[in-house]
Amino acid sequence: MLLEIRHVTRYDYIQPVRESVMEVWMQPQKSARQRLVSFDLDLDPPAQVFSYPDTFGNAVYHFDVPQPHDRLTITARSAVETEVPPEIPDRLDMGEWDRLASDSLRGDNFDFLHAHGFARGSPELDAFVNGMGLSDYKHRDPLSAVRALSELIYGAFGYETGVTRADSPIEDVLRAGKGVCQDFAHLMIAVCRGWGLPTRYVSGYLFTDRRHGDRSDPDASHAWVEVFLPSLRWVGIDPTNNTFATERHVTCAVGRDYRDVPPSRGVFKGDTVSQLSVGVSVRRARAALSDPEFLRPAGQSARQGPGSRRAPTGAEARHQQRLHQMQQQQ
After folding, report:
1. For residue 23, how many C-alpha atoms fall within 13 Å in the half-sphere facing its CB?
2. Which of 41, 60, 156, 228 is deepest in the core (most CB within 10 A)?
3. How many angstroms separate the CA atoms of 68 and 215, rounded?
4. What is the pLDDT of residues 146-194, one digit of tens each?
5. How far is it, in rounded angstroms, from Cα 172 to Cα 66?
6. Based on C-alpha coordinates, what's the Rg of the chain?
7. How deeply is 233 buried, as exposed, middle or buried, from its count of CB atoms within 10 A (0-12, 13-18, 19+)?
């Protein structure tokens, strides 16, 4: 499947900021089932762009806009050719649990076996696991357990934007009973890691097709998970839409949780109000590439605290960083 992706991120400032420094994780990966045909990053105001691979091998682009500006627009355009993933069997043998317990496998996948950021345990998560009888899922083979967990999350939680935020912990979706793909991915990661399954967060895009029962927002980036099973290697599964990853899923980056691979992250210098808007389009390549029909506000405005006359450090830098991370994946 040949797909064209356009991802527009815009920051509007009530008063000009003096400088912006940003990182983006928007380039689709190159892999056996995913061929990157082209990738282009446009900035307004213009800036020199640099790139580097992060700890997990993802392509990261970073830039600095050193002059005053009251708007920053990042436009990422991609063309990607995807292939149908290998067929997933109905089940695996119970010996897969023993293979998952090997010291070498656990060492190789250390980062994806332990709590991190938004994907961590809590009393609310323990209550959910106990109330749903999820510990009994380990009596099944790992693949069947993962499939059943995806079905449970899909059935137990409604999909609704605006209920949670980009920085919402698992407890928010557990209390609300609804959320978006980012929330469901973090919930599934936390449960799977509790079972001893190496599980990672996947950031990317989905070519939404309502005929397949997709309920995720077609005008936003998407998130799902990958579980490592020794007999199958990394298996992608999307609890938002209760499906294994298909040729309609486009992977941009993988990490321990959202915090490792947000679509964009950065800081700015200035004492002002910022509004983030996002527009995403994913379509078959035979369709004409055009701008997203609209840019949606992606978070509430936030005012910077004191100290805007100096370079942000410590708590101030973290506050500014959170402001720029409000691009929730849906």
Report:
1. 16
2. 228
3. 41
4. 999 999 999 999 999 999 998 999 999 999 999 999 999 999 999 999 9
5. 37
6. 20
7. exposed
Residue 117: both structure tokens together: 């950021």
Q: 3-state DSSP call for residue 318?
A: helix
- Other C-beta atoms lying within 10 Å of the C-beta of residue 209: 12
Q: Is 201's pLDDT higher than 80? A: yes
Q: What is the dihedral sign for C-alpha 6, 11, 12, 16?
A: negative
Pairing of strands 69-82, 264-269: unpaired
pLDDT at residue 323 in the model: 46
Cβ within 8 Å of residue 107, ≥6 positions away: none
End-to-end CA gap in the chain? 22
pLDDT of residue 297: 59
Name the pairing type of β-strands 178-179 and 158-159. parallel
Residue 10, token pair as written in the block:
């815009």
Q: Is the torsion defined by CA of 49, 50, 56, 57 positive or negative?
A: positive
